[in-house]
């Protein structure tokens, strides 16, 4: 009887802790109505204290244990094809080298950090403009898409091997897969968060699914036929849904199992504002769109309601990219007004501007490094990569891009000090910190 009572008390305590974490998570991610509803239903204080992203950290640890257990026994099959061979440990994200930046310290003054020197290497070339790039969540692969309609998949370990000065085992080929299945230029790419699946969005109005665990597959095993030019694609962190930013004014949400398309009935205002980029937050609770009308819009990831419109975020110039910080409290945007800006999600307040890089022609990106200590973008006139300290907004580096003509895309590894640049000269360059 005592054991039973003790177990009941322990279960009750655990349930209260779970409820606390859920309420704090919803509240801290600006899902206030949901937080109020859960707090009321579970009799949990709305102002309960919890470290930011504590729920996510615990879930991630639990999933990691599950993956380890599965690898010790029977490895899980691919989400889409039981005949696929999944690389051991794929999708398990290593811990960052250092703690990511606490952007709540944005108003404090401090000394800017030095961005470490990098070495670079031309690693491949498309037959036409290299238009986009994306790293896998675990940082082990990177894919590039081109106007020649091809997709190249690189293994990062092989790129590093070919960069070694004393490599003696003959030429290393870092391109491990090349896919040809689009009819028009490719605009964006994304990796499934757990399975060995790569998706691409293109001007031919399609989203295509490629299984890169198969060494001989050249074509997509699934295709979504959209109604518009697909400019951007982003997987939900669960892997069950994806968003497509298109020439339609509202991002298209797809269930990847049924391919059913859902459209929000809550567009923020009437007008045509082509979605240039769409990206989910780290938990999928929200997503952000950068639009041709210069606006940045934040959307509820569950209801698909627009919860904040930052109209004129880049004036009347096109907003070309927008991404969340890891803590989901801020959005970094880039536009053809030659500005890179950091916005507070909860208020829509502009908190930082990163000045000194001109980009008015290309669909330029602004990205964080893996620790979010630095922001990187492109200066088109000088053909340089520009780096700022994320907290002080001070410019800390300008490097020749080594491309012929300015790069049109930068993508940073999520797990290490390395990034990809690709451009109108058709080439793909890999950059890594010099040791």
TrEMBL record:
It comes from the Eukaryota. It holds the Pfam family WD40. Keywords: mRNA processing, Nucleus, Repeat, WD repeat. The keyword Repeat applies. GO terms for cellular component: mRNA cleavage stimulating factor complex. This is Cleavage stimulation factor 50 kDa subunit. GO terms for molecular function: RNA binding. It is found in: Nucleus. InterPro entries: CstF1-like, WD40/YVTN_repeat-like_dom_sf, WD40_repeat_CS, WD40_repeat_dom_sf, WD40_rpt. One of its GO terms (biological process) is mRNA 3'-end processing.
